């Protein structure tokens, strides 16, 4: 595991990608938050990423579908937040912005929350199953984004073209794609490569984790492809 750039001090935030849209966020003091955990074998076995067996102080879900909201699978007696409004877990300030899982104001797939995690140094934003591009009011509500976790596979979420538009509107320093087709998910969604073709700076990692501080955020927007750990 390595930081995005050399120097700049110790890691303040560690981000680990389990697969699909599930991540572990760890602060410098060891506070662990798991985001959008899937249920292994969900949807008749279509979701084949390995079970998440880690513990955490909190588990946060953008919505309650089984590939994002399997909060009961996380050990450690965590605090549970689904569609959070405002919470504090260790150094993490957690909040949410209401959006939709589709482009029909939720008529087809319901609500979704943009999840915001701020440890006072690095601000991480997870878009959940966002189904539409963002209007200026929503962009303003989300605010500054250092690291953006963005769905890119389409069908159930924004596709690669819409994802590129959302990235441009939020202007993060680091982009981590999620919710795309792999050998472990049998959903009618696209692969990551179409999205990567829209991005100027792409860095592929052979590990599932990165470590970040304010000082090591890249000067130019960089898209990081993490290898799922499950």
Topology overview:
Layout: E1 13-19, E2 22-27, E3 32-35, H1 42-45, E4 58-61, E5 79-82, E6 86-89, E7 92-100, E8 111-118, E9 123-126, H2 136-142, E10 147-151, H3 160-170, E11 174-178, H4 193-196, E12 202-204, E13 209-212, E14 222-225
Parallel strand pairs: 3-4, 4-5, 9-10, 10-11, 11-14, 12-14
Antiparallel strand pairs: 1-2, 1-13, 2-3, 6-7, 7-8, 8-9
Features:
disordered N terminus, 8-stranded mixed beta sheet, Metallo-beta-lactamase, Chain A, mainly beta, 230 residues
Can you characterise this structure?
Residues 1-7 have low confidence and may be disordered. The strands form two sheets. Strands 6-7-8-9-10-11-14-12 form an eight-stranded mixed beta sheet, with helices on one face. A hairpin with a 2-residue loop joins strand 6 (86-89) and strand 7 (92-100). It is mostly beta strands. 11% of the residues lie in helices and 31% in strands. The chain has one domain (13-225): Ribonuclease Z/Hydroxyacylglutathione hydrolase-like (Metallo-beta-lactamase, Chain A), CATH 3.60.15. It starts with 12 loop residues before the first strand and ends in a 5-residue tail after the last strand. The protein is built from four helices and 14 strands.
Give a quick rundown of the structure.
The protein has 230 residues and is mainly beta. The protein has one domain: Ribonuclease Z/Hydroxyacylglutathione hydrolase-like (Metallo-beta-lactamase, Chain A), CATH 3.60.15.10. Helix content is 11%, strand content 31%.
